[in-house]
Amino acid sequence: MAKIHTPEELESFRKDLLSRKDPTRPCISICAGAGCIASGADEVIAAFKTEIENQDLQAKVDTKGTGCPGFCERGPVVVIYPEEICYLQVTAEDVPEIIEQTIKKKKVVERLLFEDPATGQKVVREPDIPFYKNQKRTLLCSNIKIDSKSIDDYLAIGGYSALNKALFDMTPVDVVGEVKKSNLRGRGGAGFPAGRKWEGSRNAEEKIKYVIVNADEGDPGAFMDRALLEGNPHSILEGLIIGGYAVGAQEGYIYVRQEYPLAVKNISLAIQQAEEYGFLGENILGSDFSFKVIVHQGAGAFVCGESTALMTALEGRVGEPRPKYIRSNIKGLWERPSVLNNVETWANVPLIINNGADWFAEVGTEGSKGTKIFSLVGKINNTGLVEVPMGISLREIIYDIGGGIPDGKKFKAVQTGGPSGGCIPEEKLDLKVGFDELTKAGSMMGSGGMIVMDEDTCMVDVARYFINFLTDESCGKCVPCREGLRQMHRILTNITQGKGRQGDLEILQELSETAIEASLCALGKSAPNPFLSTLRYFKEEYEAHIDEKRCPALSCKELIAFYIDPEKCSACGICRKKCPVDAIDGAKKTIHIIDQEKCTKCGTCLEVCPSKFAAVTKFSGEPVPPPIEEEKRTLTKKQKASVQ
């Protein structure tokens, strides 16, 4: 392909692309995101190509590997256009049947369809599946439609038209004004208005400026940015180029962690393609604007998600934050004005330029506009990526989209905002999702992690887990974060081990206040949130651990014990055979007992005990009943009959 030199050439090329596409021609889109690849998507893609070749259907059927459509729980996902037939958990062995039935005979393969648990009915079309139906997808909707490695596919859905509009129909000030008017707030965590940040850099006196994509996504369970980079890299690239034009930068950086090899590969390919087509380089589309993009791979330090630490790492130094006496949009990378936004923020920019600020701002709450992508994980039926309008309630996300809690368990809390976020209890389920609303509830939006917890989750241990994560990830530059978090983790660990003491909660609160007030960066300032939010909503659990040496959730290993009920034991011997440390004593027709000294509290006995007997019980804080006397260990007639 020759380089595109003018807007007219771009539109002519786009029209030519569309003229060669037959909208009635079958197209098999297979998710090739990292999650589906882990479930065997590569084998499925290879099987489709082989089967189509074997049946000589190359001229009649298209196939493409796409980005993540979100329903990770049911991957690999296959969608067949134009009918939008959606097949879930597809294997290579299913491919011949799909080709024979769906492609050749126009019939659906019933067993691969989604079954609505509420109605028991099969759902054929992707948009009709409740997981998708209850979302509002403006960013993720293209992932399953385009080949993530094809710039032509991106151009066919209107790609780079926003860049064309910005360069030739708008001044840089107009672009900044449109983003500012849309009230797009940064999706990376802080929620700072993007337009104001851009305006600060635009007005800075220094001539050399930079725009940066923060793709250092380090939150446990979060993969929103990865999915966008893998599935639609040109959307982020187009947003970055527009941002460079708006603030007067001629150089951009994409900081992505090394743990995302597919994302690195796809964005690097997108940059190469954009250079070949003339969307990057000198005099883009014949304009006076020139721009280049460099990919920098981070080493995986969580603290490098913080803006100044990221910029320090880009400069080739240890990724540590620095004081923000002057904001980084005025003095950032190499002491020059630098606009840093995360992947999702940049991906929204082309949509705002094409559709207008009013279009974007009509969705959401007063302070939070547009849609937001969350990674919905944990104790939830439908795990995956969800894109929802700001202002939707947590209840709608968890139950209407997520399908509720598995195994009939009760919802307990949802943790939002990553490791530095907070835990929101059941009574707050109708809380509307927005930057300000989540902050008032003691949590935060963060980059979009959403971890659902059920009744078996110990909230004290949850706080201990996240404080431990943040302790490990602290760069150690400032004492309130380095030492404060270490002491918080020590005290929380003691509490979960039954070593908690009166006054521990007061000490934890004092350490939290110090970290919030005196830490150098946002990691330390927000780190106490997991403790403070769980103390706010689940104080009784802390008191039970400290005062009664009891874990109400029966989760903390040091505070639980397992016991075999002699009236329910059938002497089937399964628990004795499966116990990894031989802590169970028993023989045929003899009631089994657990040696509490040997027991490591792994829970295997509880897991393997047949449900019809349910003889194994878990205790916490209560004295474990003494072992049954030896002469009474013989099974009764009733117990013997139950075995039969």
Write a concise keyword list for the protein shown above:
single chain, 5-stranded mixed β-sheet, alpha/beta
How would you describe this structure to a colleague?
With 644 residues, this protein is of the alpha/beta class. Helices cover 39% and strands 14% of the residues. Strands 12-11-15-13-14 form a five-stranded mixed sheet. A four-stranded mixed sheet has the order 2-1-3-4, with helices on one face. It has a four-stranded parallel sheet with strand order 9-8-7-10, sandwiched between helices. Strand 5 and strand 6 form a beta hairpin. The longest helix has 18 residues. The mean pLDDT is 92.
Overall structural class, as computed from helix and strand content, comes to alpha/beta
> Which bin fits the share of residues in helices?
25-40%
Q: What characteristic shape results from the CA principal axes?
A: globular
Number of E strands: 19
Roughly how many Å is the radius of gyration? 28 Å
Uncertain spans, ≥5 residues at pLDDT below 50?
none
Strands side by side in the biggest sheet: 12-11-15-13-14
Number of helices: 26
End-to-end gap: 76 Å
Average per-residue pLDDT, rounded, comes to: 92
Biggest sheet details:
5 strands, mixed
Q: In percent, how much strand structure appears in the residues? A: 5-15%
